[in-house]
Amino acid sequence: MALIDRFRSKLLLSLLTALCALGGSRPTQAADSYSVAIVPQFPAVEIHRDWSPLLERLKKETRLNFTLTIAASIPEFEDTLLVGQPDFAYMNPYHQVMAKRARGYLPLVRGNNLLTGVLVVRRDDPIKTVSELDGKDIAFPAPNAFGASLWIRAMLAEQAKIRINPVYVKTHSNVYRYVTAGRSAAGGGINNTLADEPEEIRANLRVLMETPGVPPHPLSANPRVPERVRKQVTEALLRIAAEPGGQAMMAGVQMESLRRADYTRDYLPLEKFGLDRYVVRTPKP
Questions:
Q1: Would you state the torsion angle of the CA atoms of residues 36, 37, 39, 44, taken in this order, to the nearest 10 degrees?
Q2: CB of 116 within 8 A of CB of 216?
Q3: Strand 33-38, strand 88-90: pairing
Q4: Residue 282: what pLDDT?
Q5: Secondary structure of residue 219 in the 3-state scheme
């Protein structure tokens, strides 16, 4: 009887150990289900509209399940990214640098059109040079939005030698509306999001300054995602992007002319820009 009890105890211990191991890597999802976090550059309803069809198509191609997750703000997205919560994440170029350092996230694919930060003013504003923005309120989506905030703030401080009062308004769409409404003297965005704005918004804005171009936002994977799954997702997205209907789908999520991403080639050079001095860490309660 004692022998049977010891056998039962060992069996129970083995089962608990296996369950804990599974729980540590994926506490709430099945083995074939993966979370996909999207940096909230736009309102959540627009992200759902553009990403849901692509993830549904990706599900058919791979026979895997994907759950779209959208944080309430860019800083909240960063928090989840830096603790390694999402399995896959669509992130800005400097988020990729931060996520690689923190959790080893691997870029899989990206669009081919270079990303540039744009500093916009009202079209009828008499401001002609960035030096005229000294001491003024400037709207940004979030502190660490790369092209729309981080790089622009660094250029204003180090090249223009001016001080500004940053106002963080959560999304790129909000930035453009703050400027058109005259609530800030200028605002930071990127070329892709500005191009996606309705004509009535773009008609009222003028680009005052533009940053150099860099490889755009990648879709990246947490290294805990099995290599075979990373390959499945990468190949499926490239197949979808090669189709006429798929090209429009990719354009909707700002990954036109999709190609494979490579950290060393595409994002490692960003580490040399010294932008860490301008990264704002979210205070923890």
A1: 90
A2: no
A3: parallel
A4: 64
A5: strand
